[in-house]
Hints:
Elements: E1 15-30, H1 36-46, E2 50-56, H2 59-69, E3 75-76, E4 86-91, E5 96-104, E6 111-118, E7 124-131, H3 138-155, E8 164-169, H4 178-184, E9 194-195, E10 236-241, E11 254-255, H5 277-286, E12 292-301, E13 312-314, E14 325-332, E15 336-344, E16 349-358, E17 361-368, E18 375-382, E19 387-394
Helix pairs in contact: 1-5, 3-4
Amino acid sequence: xxxxxxxxxxxxxxxxxxxxxxxxxxxxxxxxxxxxxxxxxxxxxxxxxxxxxxxxxxxxxxxxxxxxxxxxxxxxxxxxxxxxxxxxxxxxxxxxxxxxxxxxxxxxxxxxxxxxxxxxxxxxxxxxxxxxxxxxxxxxxxxxxxxxxxxxxxxxxxxxxxxxxxxxxxxxxxxxxxxxxxxxxxxxxxxxxxxxxxxxxxxxxxxxxxxxxxxxxxxxxxxxxxxxxxxxxxxxxxxxxxxxxxxxxxxxxxxxxxxxxxxxxxxxxxxxxxxxxxxxxxxxxxxxxxxxxxxxxxxxxxxxxxxxxxxxxxxxxxxxxxxxxxxxxxxxxxxxxxxxxxxxxxxxxxxxxxxxxxxxxxxxxxxxxxxxxxxxxxxxxxxxxxxxxxxxxxxx
Length: 396
């Protein structure tokens, strides 16, 4: 490795952050003609940047949801007509760029894969949506496990440290379910391992102890299809990859409309401490599920980013925070000199980790931080044309 003479470099770490709200909502066999007057105020109040829905039925339904419910404020894609009901994505182009969609086949329904790019950071983000097998019983649990095994095997094929979110109507009754455990398991290949942002293990079904995280059903009465019986199940989830653990805005994970005071009753019974009476009524009539959303903060460090994203891609280190050692993954797009430096939060360079010529490809550098003190730092990857950074946290 060739080393360059020491150069004193002043870097401004004025930090900006772009918050991305991701929401999931099972909209109950939505055909485009019914319940629009209820779904519209709900989606307007949530104001997600990316909204993923389950149980949408057709291209006509997609068109109606876009125009009547979302008031043409979102972009979308062509409907994928898979077996049974389907997933679909709506997104704001000022926050993300849509790259591609693909679909994973299972015995019951397709699992959707949406590849996006976050505008503020040029990072890729994969979002997966699923509606897993419903109902209790060991046979149904095994069918959910089979779906989750296919899903986890697919996720394991993603590059290390990929940003991904898996969400939807999972129909899990408790955290001991083998399907849920499969998604979260520590296995030989953990590239596809998911994490639960609210980490609330236990038997969720019909348990008042978990009243604050239930999402089905916001209605006691049976009408218009779907489930009834009041809020007593946590069926709707947002799970994340390890790379996104530090991007979750604390306390942002929300079962929309659930104030924790409506266990086994309708969401609009009496006063609702989480939403207005109008929204509580809309949630009651709109679907047999509550929406769930979570906010993610993608930090961009100004003063070191250029407008040219073609030279390389710097991913978030993993694990982060870390104790002594962490892995730094980057992708080089063009042959040339690449530097990887470590700075403290004042902008002072602490170490040069890499200074060498690289050919196009993906690389992983294991950083041993035993020689430096605990604290927050920035790793800065640079070529002659561009610099990019990530914040890292060392905890000893």
